[in-house]
Amino acid sequence: MALFTLFMAACNQNTGNKSEQAKQDDPANVSATPASQQENQAAKKDNFAELFSHYQHLALALSSDDDKEAALASKGILEAIPNINTGNFTAEQNSKYDEIIADVKEHAEHIQENIGNIAHQREHLVGLSDDLYDITKTFGSEKTIYKVYCPMYNDGKGAFWLSSIKEIKNPYHGQEMLGCGEIQEELK
Fold it and tell me: Of 171, 165, 177, 179, whose CA–CA distance to 61 is shortest?
């Protein structure tokens, strides 16, 4: 760390404001700099990337009518949860996170345990999608996420899912109505 700091100081000798650079290089001062606050925000957003990746895998598996792959994706969701770093969350964010993640676990467990019952897996995708939507709204996302709505699911009551692509691949009806849906919201 000291060697890195010396290297950075040497590289920045010609930039002018040495005292400001020294403040930024001081580990005790990191939380006070706007750049570190931005990095902290980016880390929070990226903190859920693995979870969202497994969710995308789940939605794609259901759009392909593959209940076994859906169960595998749900296992990935459950394994990703302990990797989420909550150390930088505020007390309010921690409370919200604990509430949401308990639901995520419940839905993922149901999906994982119900190979052979894709209708039940899809029912739990509804709740899981709500939970990931709440996570995205609360903590943000490093990438653009689309909220896609299917008006036909659940006897016309409708449901949404989240997607990292604009192409519609409906997980609620699978191959039967793969292109059914419309983008309702773009989240970032």
Answer: 171
Calculate mean pLDDT across residues 165-174: 97
The domain limits of the chain are 46-187
The string of DSSP letters for the chain reads -HHHHHHHHHHTGGGS-HHHHHHHH-GGGGGGSHHHHHHHHHHHHHTTHHHHHHHHHHHHHHHTT-HHHHHHHHHHHHHHGGG---TT--HHHHHHHHHHHHHHHHHHHHHHH-TT-HHHHHHHHHHHHHHHHHHHHHH--SS-EEEEEESSHHHHT-EEEEESSSS---TTTGGGGTT--EEEEEE-
What are 186's strand-pairing partners? 146
CA distances from 75 to 45, 128, 130, 146 (A): 22, 13, 19, 23
- Nearest by Cα to 55 from 121, 138, 153: 121
Cβ partners under 8 Å of residue 69, min gap 6: 57, 61
Q: Which of 165, 167, 158 is nearest to 130 (CA)?
A: 158
Predicted local distance difference test score (pLDDT) of residue 61 = 98
Sheet with strand 182-187: strands edge to edge: 159-163, 145-150, 182-187
Q: Looking up tokens 């990292």, which residue turns up?
A: 164
pLDDT value for 142: 87
Residue 147: strand pairing partners: 162, 185
